[in-house]
Design brief:
The complex is a heterodimer of chains A (121) and B (110).
Chain A (H helix, E strand, L loop, with lengths): L2 E5 L2 E3 L5 E8 L8 E6 L5 E7 L6 E3 L7 E6 L4 E6 L8 E8 L8 E4 L3 E5 L2
Parallel strand pairs in A: 2-11
Antiparallel strand pairs in A: 1-3, 3-8, 4-5, 4-9, 5-6, 7-8, 9-10, 9-11
Chain B lengths: L8 E4 L5 E6 L10 E6 L6 E4 L13 E6 L2 E6 L8 E9 L4 E4 L3 E5 L1
Parallel strand pairs in B: 1-9
Antiparallel strand pairs in B: 2-6, 3-4, 3-7, 5-6, 7-8, 7-9
The chains are: A mainly beta (121), B mainly beta (110).
């Protein structure tokens, strides 16, 4: 069974940092593009960032560009998201999502349950 | 900011057919695959339709997807109470170099 398990969320003050992790199992992690998607309380889904199979190509939503950094460690089947300069509007549940294929241009087929990030003083 | 437009709500009685539209542009739906997700309250999104009209194993054939030009649609036939959920369309956007989601549609079974 394909599974994604996120961790690293928590309460952080504005301007602070967090590092989210997502461990994948039940599939060959290194052969799929991966993404992070967030959902603010009571709001819709917002794609945050994506990364190619090798990690050599990364993509970001304009709302997080320059503040967030996505990376992956294929040897540990783990996806990361470094969140810096956090703002109140970054408060959301952050989901890790597995790509449908090796291409980032395809969609996501399996989602983790998410980890909650709350930015507040 | 959602680039794909969906109706905020849709409803029907049990057994009816409900259709949800998703309107985009040539840079997203017009040139890339469309995906549909179902999100039940308090849970993670679940893939319903991939690559425009393909159903993952385990998804009932009551759910079907289609695409024409810069628009796509999700149809739910034989509506059931367990179909009450939020539904989102999504596609890669070549101009933004990122993924875009629809505004979301809440389906209510009357």
């Amino acid at each position: 069974e394909v599974q994604l398990l996120e961790s690293g969320g928590g309460l952080v003050q504005p301007g602070g940092s967090l590092r989210l992790s997502c461990v994948g199992s039940g599939f060959t992690f290194s052969t799929y593009a991966m993404s992070w998607v967030r959902q603010a309380p009571g709001k819709g889904l917002e794609w945050v960032s994506g990364i190619s199979v090798s990690g050599g190509n990364t993509y970001y939503a304009d709302s997080v560009k320059g503040r967030f950094t996505v990376s992956r460690d294929n040897s540990k089947n783990t996806l990361f998201l470094q969140l810096n300069s956090l703002r109140a509007e970054d408060t959301a549940v952050y989901h890790c999502a597995k790509g449908d294929s090796s291409s980032i241009y395809y969609g996501m087929d399996v989602w983790g349950q998410g980890t909650t990030v709350t930015v507040s003083s | 900011q959602s680039v794909l437009t969906q109706p905020p709500s849709a409803s029907g009685t049990p057994g009816q057919r409900v259709t949800i539209s998703c309107s985009g542009s040539s840079s997203n739906i017009g040139s890339n695959f469309v995906y549909w997700y179902q999100q039940l309250p308090g849970t993670a999104p679940k893939l319903l339709i991939y690559r425009n009209n393909q159903r993952p194993s385990g998804v009932p054939d009551r759910f079907s997807g289609s695409k024409s030009g810069t628009s796509a649609s999700l149809a739910i036939s034989g509506l059931r109470s367990e179909d009450e959920a939020d539904y989102y369309c999504a596609a890669w956007d070549d101009t933004l170099s990122g993924y875009v989601f629809g505004t979301g549609t809440k389906v209510t079974v009357l």
